[in-house]
Automatic annotation (TrEMBL):
One of its GO terms (molecular function) is phosphatidylinositol bisphosphate binding. InterPro entries: CRAL-TRIO_dom, CRAL-TRIO_dom_sf, CRAL/TRIO_N_dom_sf. This is CRAL-TRIO domain-containing protein. SUPFAM superfamilies: CRAL/TRIO domain (SSF52087), CRAL/TRIO N-terminal domain (SSF46938). It comes from Dendroctonus ponderosae. PANTHER family: ALPHA-TOCOPHEROL TRANSFER PROTEIN-RELATED (PTHR10174), CRAL-TRIO DOMAIN-CONTAINING PROTEIN (PTHR10174:SF213). It comes from the Eukaryota. One of its GO terms (cellular component) is membrane. Residues 176-300 form the CRAL-TRIO domain.
Amino acid sequence: MQYFPYSCETGTIRLAGNETVICQFLRQVNPKRKAGRQLGKYPSQRQSSNMQKLPFGFTSKEIIDQGRTSRENIDAVKQWLSSVDSAIIPRVQDELVVIFLLSCDNDLPLTKHTITMYYKCKRNSPDIFDNREMDRADLKKAMNSIHMCSLPVRTDENYAIHHFKLNDTNYLNFDLVPVMKLSYMLLDITQEKDLPRGLVVIIDCKGVGLMHLTRMKIGPMRRYFQFLQEGFPIQMKVIHIINAVYFFDKFLNVVKLCTKSELMEMIKVHPPSADPEKLFALVPKKCWPEDYGGDLPSTETLHEKAIEQFEEKQEFWRLEQEIRCKNSD
């Protein structure tokens, strides 16, 4: 996950890169319940043979063998999880622990905080994180409004790239919350296998009109960006806004209401340009769809592939929600 400074809810301070991370951590154990947990009155996080597991295309051992994390780090996180009420954080399998560790550069205190906020944000935002069935009318409408995909070719640094482009320019057909939901679903597709070392986001604003501002919803946006800043299980590297309209600063002013300065600094705004070389300076030509003069298939083709990936991922999201919500009632 990307490191952002001060969280008013938890008192956490995060510094970028590999600098010192100073944390005044959220207390995981309520003192009034501590004795009960020590007596075994709360479900354990210890992984058992009958534990429900999400289907990933990699194993923790493969990531350890690559030298990206260690068995000791995984066990340390699992030991901490064993002290946490499973109504707060459900049982977490090794592969998911690995994802969190990599997102935090194997910083254990930060990993624990990220896991905590990951589940807290999901618990507080069922409109964004639950009911991810692709036959829902709102998700179908959102997939027509915005074309999106996880590009099949990554940067030389093994950064994944998420590409978003307005397809239906009618602002009345733009519904923000389903688009938020889909954008986080896209990350699950990206992290299914061959875990990337970071994420680059490209948002093409061609066709965006001033009336799209009326479709912004501050409440959901605050919750969306809280997850992005504190519970996001991958390191955000940069957000490129291309073909930015002349009034895009007004959109940024709305975003500023919901985010911290470090995230704002990651947003790079680029005006319209007919020179593809300017785009290739952002990410390599091999990573761009042919619409932009790149080597990949068209955005339409890539979007259709993304729809297939969303459909194939349905059982994953059903099981993830079942595991996450089973003990939270």
